[in-house]
Every structure is written in C-alpha cells, then in structure tokens.
Design a protein that fits this description.
single chain, 193 residues, alpha/beta, five-stranded mixed sheet, elongated
C-alpha cells in the first residue's frame, strides 16, 4: 500500500512539474513590440509648392512580416520571432512620411492620389534592418511623377548602433528613417510650382 501511495504521489508531482514547465516555456513577457521613434521635423523654407499625392509606401517582401530583420552575413538574414513591430512596418512608414511632410512643409498641399495634374510621391524600401557590423541600414528610392514624367532619387543611410540589442537597433533605424524623411522634404522644397 505504501508503494502504491508513493508511486501515486510521484506521478502527481511529475504531472504538476510538467504542467508548470509547459506554462513557463514561452511566457508572453518574452515577446517585445517596437515602434519607430516619432521624427521631429524642422520646417523647411519653401515657396508655394504644387500639390502632391502620397502613394502607399512599399517595402521589400522579406521586410513585410511582423519580426525585426537582422542581416547575419552577405547572404543570410534572420527574422526575429520574439521582437516584433507593434504596427506593420509599411503602415508606420506611411504614417510618419505623411506627418513629417505636413510639419516640415506646411505650404505643401496634399491631394488624393490620381487627381489630374497632381504630382505623386512613391517610396520604396529595399533594406530596413541591422547588419552584423552593428549598423542600421536603410535604402531604397523615392519617385516623383507628373503627367508620365518620373524622377527617381535613390537613398542609402547607415547608422551605427550605440549598443547591442533590439531597442538600440530600432532607435538607429529611426535615426536613419528621419534622414530619409528630411531628404525627401528638402527635395520637395526645391520643386516650386
């Protein structure tokens, strides 16, 4: 009888240990969410500008998931499973692009896309990650089009991470992204009507 009770007690304790281990193997607190820092634009002096429509920002497919991307080598990338964007990257970039232009270029009227006679701004992001050299890399191109004529301007920015870790990575990406926004605003300021 004692052996039966001891065995039953042992089985019960093992079941409880397995249950606790199962609950604690992937705690929700291990998942971290990140948002790009909100840029602080400096107003750009400009004359009256022609209206512009902002097309949806496009990012490369491998950047379009919820995980932050790290470049491990020239040919290898990893996508984080525990370090995720709070909003889809395309949505964050679109929102910040629009808000930045409204603040940096208060004389820049925005219009609906495909309005006749309105320029269109299209932004495409090819790289938006940290690399194995400790740098945040952002590159791509933006295009301004009007009546079939397209002007395309490439950009590329590298920002050194101040320390290791995902928060430092997101901060460095935010700094690089603000440089892209400033470049676009400066370019638009030279496009007088």
């Amino acid at each position: 009888m004692r052996q039966g009770t001891a065995f039953l007690l042992l089985v019960l304790m093992a079941s409880m240990a397995l249950g606790l281990a199962g609950c604690s193997s992937t705690p929700a607190s291990d998942i971290r969410y990140y948002q790009l820092a909100i840029p602080s634009p400096q107003p750009v002096h400009s004359s009256k500008l022609a209206a512009i429509g902002i097309a949806p920002v496009r990012v490369a497919t491998y950047l379009n998931g919820s995980g932050l991307v790290l470049q491990q080598s020239a040919v290898e990338f990893s996508i984080a499973r525990q370090h995720l964007w709070a909003d889809a990257l395309e949505q964050q970039l679109q929102r910040q692009l629009t808000e930045y232009l409204l603040q940096a270029l208060p004389k820049q009227p925005l219009a609906l896309l495909n309005t006749p006679g309105v320029r269109t701004l299209q932004l495409e992001i090819d790289r938006f990650y940290a690399n194995d050299q400790g740098q945040a890399i952002i590159s791509g191109r933006y295009s301004l089009s009007l009546l079939g004529a397209i002007e395309t301007v490439p950009f590329s920015h590298a920002v050194k991470l101040e320390q290791d870790g995902y928060p430092a990575m997101v901060y460095a990406l935010s700094v690089g992204w603000q440089r892209v926004l400033a470049d676009i605003a400066q370019h638009l300021a030279t496009q007088v009507q």
